[in-house]
């Protein structure tokens, strides 16, 4: 390749890139970029028409700037212009820009699609390919709509050049992935399948990706591809390493195509036709044989390509799961890789063997490698490889090797990476339960687990051991003895105390015959841990104590004394205090019979799937298990030990933030001292502008300066609860001269007075305000039904003989009476749908007046008084809120959705309420806020 | 394949190709996270790792990391060789390619990639055919008298470490 092609003369671009590279700091880089952006902008805007070359250069610079991570908001039009240039390089740069910086601006998409259409029909293969690449890179729905019909025609047409066919195939694949409904293969299906027979290997390589994807979705329509794929594969596998010329890669014939063929076959069951199947088995055997041949090259590329095919073949063998001979051979091959010096191969072998372990034909063969796998777990230096080894041990575990594997996993846990400990703990717990022959081994294992990795033992694990001990009476005595011994350790994990407390509380009597574990010794042992434990564990221990009183009457006085002590009965924790008080009373009042009934041994738990398994499934992948089951498991655990979880209620009280919480920090200090945003100059305009915008400024906040001029400042502070509100007005005299005959009146114009808003002023003002002084007035507000207008505040006073007269709107808006409502995503959308009448919805699209800062938006929405709901809208950029407006007459539920579009600097606001006037009014109020 | 990233040892992104629709914000987040993860790995570690629900396949050539994200059922080893073939293509085109070639001729790097992979799938695996396509395109461009003041570069990418 000639070196001249390196830079096709865009000197300015090279200079610019050099400049950027020479920048010593991020700031310098940004400065240089801004300079360049300004330059390009002026060039694009300039009167002089730019020639194609300059346009190309500038578009390329913009692209470079974008790829550095900066935002680009212009130049799209110039790039689109380049598309219709007849100079190839200009067209090419235009397409590149569009591919990288797609913009869903519909105006542009239409122009882009036009250009693409022209190029597709140009009959110039190079231009056609460019256009197809662009469609494949963008892959938008608009493009699918425009071209999904045309591209299959190009793909199967007899006179289409090979390179165009290749691009068309993959272009169609991309469109199918984005908009499967628009890509209709129908009549083309069989001709597309027959591309597998194409003479050109490149065409086959490209087409097979499309065929595989289509086969996964419509296996029946494409099933003729199986025999074609087998014969193609067979020809490749049996070819000499030079037959395929440039499609041979490091002595391996067509590795990419081979992998894709094997992958396609995995979409189908084994071929029914005996001949086809025989041919395929032959291929698979050849591939396995080749793995044993000495390498034709020492290069890693050779072995990688060869092994890529081998692993894909093994995947197919596992997928069929019907050829014992091949399965065992695959397993042996993987066994060799387990000790290969290439880390990559060891990793893949472990991974692949995991699936082999689940096949009945190869399970035993996999098991023979147990020592190697254990060794990998111990010695691999890369945690991702160790993880694979642990997975494989878990997969190959059965009754015969469970003890060994669990022991190895336990000992690995002591040094395991933190990232995989929790999963390891779950796996050990599951294996121990699943393959327990005698339950004493199970109990030992779980207690060991708690000892070694207590912090990673989740509730499910220790709940489960208790469930099993309760349900199996043959293990109860052993369990009691073992926990008793485990608790002897000077430092034992809190989870151990929980299990110990529970089990001794239930079955301590089974070991009480031994003087070394007499009731008092047991109790003292438990109680010695008490002060080290958290509140839930202490609560559990208190329940164990009351059970002790029932099991061992001789411990009654000691335990009562403990319960009676100030640290229990006056404990600041309500739950502990309540338990202490109740248990103390219970033990002193109830007869032995009653006590024995109340504190009876727990009944067996219903058999169910281990909640641990559910947890592991959940960790491994969402959707594998229903969350309900998990929750049930938890609840079941919560009922352990009779005492129940009474503490739960108090913590369940949701603390919703007060809607009137002052978000803008204006609460502190009298409002007069708060800085006035628009001071002074309002004297003239008081009645129109200031009054209006003044009131609107308070939609999302309750406190602040309502009005200010050179004489007077009016501060406001308000609070609302349900349908009631109270507003404090502060009138500050800014002059040194007193105001006389100072009077204020609040009026509700029109309907407002009679039946919408009920207002009365609480205290009448002194008619005199001294210079520099401030007086306060309180107004009570009651909302009767929803309303739109605001009450007016009229102020009259004399200043130096001149009469001053102002009228302001009071910032009382309907949203002030919101009660926030928290709800889950599901509920939100359900209610959203319920409010589907056209008049219930109000929507506005408006330009942003302020910077679109997420935090500011959140603060404003909270200030609005609704609950801001997180994780409800699938698009995290959007905001949704819910609340109920409390009026005396009725409650009006309202939902809100705000969708910012940062690119366009626009918002779309949608409000739905059970009352149409409310939706409308809220929308009006809010449209001014952002 | 879902995306391919090229970045330097210093964590500078040199090329990014996304085959799934993602917002710019997501792309930046993914890039940041992955660059960090991959750079933190030691030389002898394996070239594959699980990341979110994807498999990452990466390989270092001199100062550059090539990193691909593939789906669960995709083949790791063949992806490793996709990376290698792309490096070979760049090498052949630029004549002993190095990081600076890719910086200064980023558009070429994209064009070559588009000839080789399309929509995340191999389109043409023959080195000859890919280069022929690029060559033809180069012939179409006007002969330019300007030359690039490119620094003389060390030829370091050609052989993988």
What secondary-structure arrangement, pairings included, does this model have?
The complex is a heterodimer of chains A (930) and B (161).
Chain A: H1 11-22, H2 26-45, H3 52-67, H4 76-83, H5 88-100, H6 106-120, H7 125-138, H8 141-147, H9 150-156, H10 162-178, H11 189-193, H12 201-217, H13 225-237, E1 248-249, E2 252-253, H14 255-265, H15 274-292, H16 300-320, H17 324-337, H18 343-356, H19 363-367, H20 370-379, H21 383-396, H22 402-413, H23 418-434, H24 439-453, H25 459-471, H26 476-487, H27 494-507, H28 519-530, H29 535-551, H30 556-564, H31 566-569, H32 574-589, H33 592-598, H34 611-620, H35 627-638, H36 647-652, H37 689-696, E3 704-708, E4 712-721, E5 724-733, E6 739-747, H38 751-756, E7 757-761, E8 774-783, E9 792-799, E10 802-809, E11 818-820, H39 825-834, E12 841-847, H40 854-864, E13 867-869, E14 879-886, E15 891-901, E16 906-913, H41 916-927
Antiparallel strand pairs in A: 1-2, 3-4, 4-5, 5-8, 6-9, 7-8, 9-10, 11-14, 12-16, 13-14, 14-15, 15-16
Chain B: E1 3-8, E2 13-18, H1 24-39, E3 48-51, E4 54-61, E5 64-70, H2 76-94, H3 99-104, H4 106-116, E6 117-118, E7 121-122, H5 127-140
Antiparallel strand pairs in B: 1-2, 1-5, 3-4, 4-5, 6-7
Helix pairs in contact in B: 4-5
Family (chain B): Belongs to the adaptor complexes small subunit family.
Membrane topology (chain B): Peripheral membrane protein
Domain AP complex mu/sigma subunit (chain B): 1-140
């Amino acid at each position: 390749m000639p070196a001249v092609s390196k830079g096709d003369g865009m000197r300015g671009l090279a200079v610019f890139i050099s400049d950027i590279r020479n920048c010593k700091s991020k700031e310098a880089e940004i400065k240089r970029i801004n300079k360049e952006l300004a330059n390009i902008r002026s060039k694009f805007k300039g009167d002089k028409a730019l020639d194609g070359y300059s346009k190309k250069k500038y578009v390329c610079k913009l692209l470079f700037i974008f790829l550095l991570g900066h935002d680009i908001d212009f130049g799209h039009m110039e790039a689109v212009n380049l598309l219709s240039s007849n100079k190839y390089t200009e067209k090419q740069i235009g397409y590149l820009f569009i591919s990288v910086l797609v913009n869903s601006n519909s105006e542009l998409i239409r122009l882009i699609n036009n250009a693409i259409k022209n190029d597709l029909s140009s009959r110039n293969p190079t231009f056609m390919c460019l256009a197809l690449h662009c469609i494949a890179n963008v892959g938008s729905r608009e493009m699918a709509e425009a071209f999904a019909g045309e591209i299959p025609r190009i793909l199967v047409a007899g006179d289409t050049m090979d390179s165009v066919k290749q691009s068309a195939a993959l272009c169609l694949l991309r469109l199918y992935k984005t908009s499967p409904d628009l890509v209709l293969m129908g009549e083309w299906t069989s001709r597309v399948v027959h591309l597998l027979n194409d003479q050109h290997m490149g065409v086959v390589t490209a087409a097979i990706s499309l065929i595989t994807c289509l086969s996964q979705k419509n296996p029946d329509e494409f099933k003729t591809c199986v025999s074609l794929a087998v014969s193609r594969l067979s020809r490749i596998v049996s070819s000499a390493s030079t037959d395929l010329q440039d499609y041979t890669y490091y002595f391996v014939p067509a590795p990419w195509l081979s992998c894709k063929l094997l992958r396609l076959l995995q979409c189908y069951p084994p071929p029914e036709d005996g001949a086809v199947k025989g041919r395929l088995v032959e291929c698979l055997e050849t591939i396995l044989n080749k793995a044993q041949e000495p390498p034709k090259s020492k290069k890693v590329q050779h072995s990688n390509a060869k092994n890529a095919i081998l692993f894909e073949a093994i995947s197919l063998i596992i997928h069929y799961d019907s050829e014992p001979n091949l399965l065992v051979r695959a397993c042996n091959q993987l066994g060799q890789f387990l000790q290969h010096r290439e880390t990559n191969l060891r990793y893949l072998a472990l991974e692949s063997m995991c699936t082999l372990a689940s096949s009945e034909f190869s399970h035993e063969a996999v098991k023979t490698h147990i020592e190697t796998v254990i060794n990998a777990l111990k010695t691999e230096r890369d945690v991702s490889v160790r993880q694979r080894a642990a997975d494989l041990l878990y997969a190959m575990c059965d009754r015969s090797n469970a003890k060994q594997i669990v022991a190895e996993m336990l000992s690995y846990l002591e040094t395991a990476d933190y990232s995989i400990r929790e999963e390891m703990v779950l796996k050990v717990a599951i294996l121990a339960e699943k393959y327990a022959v005698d339950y004493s081994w199970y109990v030992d294992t779980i207690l060991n687990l708690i000892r070694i990795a207590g912090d990673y033992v989740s509730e499910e694990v220790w709940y489960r051991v208790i469930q099993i001990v309760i349900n199996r009476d043959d293990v109860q005595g052993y369990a009691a003895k073992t926990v008793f011994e485990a608790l002897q350790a000077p430092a034992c994990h809190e989870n151990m105390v929980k299990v110990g407390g529970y089990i001794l509380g239930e079955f301590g009597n089974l070991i009480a015959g031994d003087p070394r574990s007499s009731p008092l010794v047991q109790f003292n042992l438990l109680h010695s841990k008490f002060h080290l434990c958290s509140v839930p564990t202490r609560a559990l221990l208190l329940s164990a104590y009351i059970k002790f009183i029932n099991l061992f009457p001789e411990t009654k006085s000691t335990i009562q004394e403990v319960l009676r002590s100030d640290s229990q009965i006056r404990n600041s924790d309500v739950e502990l205090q309540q338990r202490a008080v109740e248990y103390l009373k219970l033990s002193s009042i109830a007869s032995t019979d009653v006590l024995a009934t109340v504190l009876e041994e727990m009944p067996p738990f219903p058999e169910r799937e281990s909640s641990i398994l559910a947890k592991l499934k959940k960790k491994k992948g969402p959707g594998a298990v229903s969350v309900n089951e998990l929750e049930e498991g938890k609840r079941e655990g919560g009922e352990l030990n009779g005492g129940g979880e009474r503490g739960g209620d108090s913590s369940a009280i949701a603390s919703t933030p007060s809607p009137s919480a002052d978000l803008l920090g204006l609460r502190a200090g009298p409002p007069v001292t708060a800085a006035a945003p628009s001071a002074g100059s309002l004297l003239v305009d008081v009645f129109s502008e200031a009054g209006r915008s003044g009131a609107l400024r308070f939609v999302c906040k309750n406190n602040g300066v309502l009005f200010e001029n050179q004489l007077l400042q009016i501060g406001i502070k308000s609070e609302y609860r349900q349908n009631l509100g109270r507003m404090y007005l502060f009138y500050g005299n800014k002059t040194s001269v007193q105001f006389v005959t100072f009077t204020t009146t609040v009026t509700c114009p029109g309907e407002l007075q009679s039946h919408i808003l009920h207002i009365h002023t609480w205290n009448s003002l002194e008619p005199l305000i001294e210079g520099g002084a401030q007086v306060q007035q309180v107004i009570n507000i009651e909302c009767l039904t929803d309303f739109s207008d605001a009450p007016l505040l009229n102020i009259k006073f004399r200043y130096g003989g001149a009469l001053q007269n102002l009228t302001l709107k009071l910032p009382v808006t309907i949203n002030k009476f919101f009660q926030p409502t928290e709800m889950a995503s599901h509920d939100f959308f359900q209610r959203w749908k319920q409010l589907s009448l056209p008049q219930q919805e109000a929507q506005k699209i408006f330009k942003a007046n302020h910077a679109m800062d997420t935090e500011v938006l959140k603060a404003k929405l909270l200030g609005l008084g609704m609950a801001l709901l997180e994780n409800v809208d699938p698009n995290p950029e959007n905001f949704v809120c819910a609340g109920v407006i409390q009026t005396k007459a009725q409650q009006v539920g309202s939902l809100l959705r705000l969708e910012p579009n940062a690119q366009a600097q626009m918002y779309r606001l949608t409000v739905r309420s059970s009352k149409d006037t409310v939706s409308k009014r809220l929308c009006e109020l809010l449209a001014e806020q952002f | 394949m879902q995306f391919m990233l090229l970045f330097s040892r210093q964590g500078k992104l040199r090329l990014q190709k996304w085959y799934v629709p993602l917002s710019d914000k997501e792309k930046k987040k993914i890039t940041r996270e992955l660059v960090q993860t991959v750079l933190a790995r030691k030389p002898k570690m394996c070239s594959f790792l699980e990341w979110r629900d994807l498999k990452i396949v990466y390989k270092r050539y001199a100062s550059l990391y090539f990193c691909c994200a593939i789906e669960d059922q995709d083949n790791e080893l063949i992806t490793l060789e996709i990376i290698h073939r792309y490096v070979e293509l760049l090498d052949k085109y630029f004549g002993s390619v190095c990081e600076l070639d890719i910086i200064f001729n980023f558009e070429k790097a994209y064009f070559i990639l588009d000839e080789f992979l399309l929509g995340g799938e191999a389109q043409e695996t023959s080195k000859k055919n890919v280069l022929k396509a690029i060559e033809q395109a180069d012939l179409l461009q006007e002969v330019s008298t300007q030359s690039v003041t490119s620094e003389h570069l060390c030829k370091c990418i050609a052989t993988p470490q």
